[in-house]
Amino acid sequence: MTTTQNSRPDPAGASGPTGQVAPIDGTEQSAGVAAIGDAEQPAGAAAIGAAGGAGPLPTEAGQVSEKEARQVAEAARETAWDRPSFGKELFLGRFRLDLINPWPSADPDDVARAEEFLGAFGAYLDSEVDGAAIERDAHIPDEVFHGLARLGAFGMKIDRRYGGLGLSNLHYCRALMRAGSVNPAISALLSAHQSIGVPQPLKMFGTPEQKQHFLPRLAAGVVSAFLLTEPDVGSDPARLATTAEPTDDGTGYRLNGVKLWATNGTVATLLVVMARVPAAEGRRGGITAFVVEGDSEGITVERRNAFVGLRGLENSLTRFHDVFVPKENVIGGEGKGLKIALTTLNTGRLSLPAMCVGAGKWSLNVAREWAADRVQWGRPVGEHEAVAKKLAFIAATTYGMESMLDLSCLLADDDRNDIRIEAALVKLYASEMAWKIADELIQIRGGRGYETAESLAARGERPAAVEQILRDLRINRIFEGSTEIMHLLIAREAVDAHLSVAGDIIDPDAGLGRKAKAGARAGVFYAKWLPTLAVGKGQAPGAYAEFGPLAGHLRHVERASRKLARSTFYAMSRWQGKMERKQAFLGRVVDIGAELFAMSAVCVRAVAERAEHPENVELADLFCRQARLRVDELFTALWSNTDSLDVAAAKRILAGRYAALEEGVVTPPADRPWVARWQPGPSTAQDVRRRIPPR
Questions:
Q1: Which residues, at least 6 apart from 573, have a Cβ–Cβ distance to it below 8 Å?
Q2: Among residues 1, 212, 579, 620, which one has the fewest Cβ atoms lying within 10 Å of its Cβ?
Q3: What is this structure's pTM?
Q4: What residues are labeled active site?
Q5: Where are the beta strands (DSSP E) in 440-534?
Q6: What would you measure as the largest C-alpha separation in the chain, in angstroms?
Q7: What is the pLDDT of residues 519-538, one digit of tens each?
């Protein structure tokens, strides 16, 4: 039985039940900056933020208020929208198809250079890299590092003038997809190095001197890593405890602290390290990004972390003790570290869905061939409806993920678009859907899906590593922003237009003058905006006729976009400052937006490619029909759900009311803390760093 909370139909009218213009509590900021770290939830569900500034950073790391934590995260956001964004308009109920149609095209010269590299890259992976051995040994051989460097794979995103290949985002993602199909640890190595490691922050924020000094080394194969997360700091960067004390002579800084889960950390020679510079007279201070030489005195790699999947991943626990970093190695200036991290991730997040798309393609191949070959009850299993539905889901969803990714990459390469929402949506969507695809593949394969490739091969069967792909994909729902964090981050951006005009109305720190000005701004904005949500092109039967059999799906997207904007506005009017606590509602809003973005992408792509691939129109239609069912369910769940009941139950669970339910099993021993404590000082552990010998 479904318990109904907050039951309310689609608010087709203007201002909700109170008639108030009520955005979201102006004191609550987004914790989305923590998306780089682990999957912890932000304290207080800091989903939605103020239009104002950040205020001072806390003076003592580890002891900050909820408000201070949110202020730090909010200060890291990009606040300007000086370029168009399809995603932003979609959440506002404005279906700007002109921003993505016609399908963007890549530069022919860039395509030719990229195809030449991809051919050589693929040939190398096929002939020289043993993915099964990497999985078995949990180790990428030195020779693979050398081969990747020789091909230029460590410089795919680095400009050609610095020795890199200068690939577009589109072809970079295709290279990662290809590498991941051999072994995902290789994609993770290359992605962590270039998408969030030293090359991308320097490309966007580095000085000419920094670029000239570091980028040629990185393009040649020197590996980099990104270090933000700490043992006790994941989704709350305001509590960052690693410090960077300026030296007395003014020549640099001394780093002290411990960093956890640094991908490439055991093999990296160059590091991007986030550390807190103390504020002082004439010094802004704040969380700052540094380029650090990995062999500097005082750096100890104390652990190589091991995981469920991605067994070849070189991921570290790294300690810094009085590590000197010259002032020339500050990226972008003091206090700009988190803003640099978030801005870098706008395009950096595209690398992860590239690997998810690759997993979808691989899964489709295995599912199709197995379901055609395996006969049960007198028919191939793929002809039985129960399995046929799974095959249809895998094929349609893979096409949807690839269309979203390719479109986001092409928009990013154009550089005339703001893709922060689109990149976040495709990361969120692809990581969730790829996991579902892998789960369905396991079910299609049955017992063989749960069996290792090595065991299958031992008795003469095709070694399809289905169980491995499930293990490898699971981290993508956490990497570079957990699903929960991504929901909050995207929701914050989705309501930015409202906060920018009316945030001061309910900001307790705003004076009467600011509130009055905000009220005037809001009156003008909503007088123009609200009427646009009543009717639109999607209600015209002949609209989007140029899309042929897909036209109806685009009309549905247009109508659903306006309905989503109405629902969001009604929720803001109803809950006002409490909106930031409605994480489940915000998550559904974002999930609806992701489905609408995906539907738009597949329709535009399928029509653009129908001369060469007419079959893709069928895939687009199939995907949209499946997506529309998911959207309908999400819209229903906005107002008919058990959210309030679940929150109340969770409080009782946390208080131990149902602890008796845990009896009868052996639980983990309680002799150690859930989060290991650490103290500054020299390391007492053996250094386990791995240095790749020269070629």
A1: 15, 16, 17, 18, 20, 21, 22
A2: 1
A3: 0.90
A4: 480
A5: none
A6: 82
A7: 888 888 889 999 999 999 99
